[in-house]
Write a structure and sequence with these properties.
Layout: E1 7-15, H1 17-23, H2 28-36, E2 40-45, E3 51-56, E4 61-66, E5 72-75, E6 81-89, E7 92-99, E8 102-111, E9 114-121, E10 124-132
Antiparallel strand pairs: 1-2, 1-10, 2-3, 3-4, 5-6, 6-7, 7-8, 8-9, 9-10
């Protein structure tokens, strides 16, 4: 069920995100801005079942629209062009991005009313926590 993810979320905690950005190949200047940004995440589902995930910050706003289990092309906030697929596994939204022979996984789940986003690249794991806005 994706309904639990729908809403407006604000970043309240970020652990190891700089290391994760390094692992996926983000340059220093972009990482510094990425570390300072406190993005709002807006998740919605339209009548056709397409999911929209919009990340809004003073640095950049990005939006992806997709259907579960259907691959699409994504241009990430840091400019990577990836082939992306999002699946729903055990209550988690699992987003897999592949580019240039590399692969990263983002797992989002709702725990204790917060949205936890786990970013995984090889051995590097970052955790971002978002609180739901009223």
């Amino acid at each position: 069920m994706v309904e639990q993810f729908v809403g407006n979320w604000t970043l309240i905690a970020s652990e190891n995100f700089d290391e994760y950005m390094k692992a996926i190949g983000v340059g220093l200047a972009t990482r510094q801005m990425g570390n300072m940004a406190k993005p709002n995440l807006v998740i919605s589902v339209d009548d056709a079942g397409a999911i929209s995930m919009k990340s809004e910050s003073t640095f950049k706003t990005t939006e992806i629209k997709f259907k579960l289990n259907e691959e699409f092309e994504e241009t990430t906030a840091d400019g990577r062009k990836t082939k992306t697929i999002v699946t729903l596994e055990n209550g988690k939204l699992v987003q897999q991005q592949t580019w240039d022979g590399k692969k990263t996984t983002l797992e989002r789940e709702v725990q204790d009313g917060n949205l936890k986003a786990k970013c995984i690249m090889d051995e590097v794991v970052a955790m971002r926590t978002y609180a739901k806005r009223a």
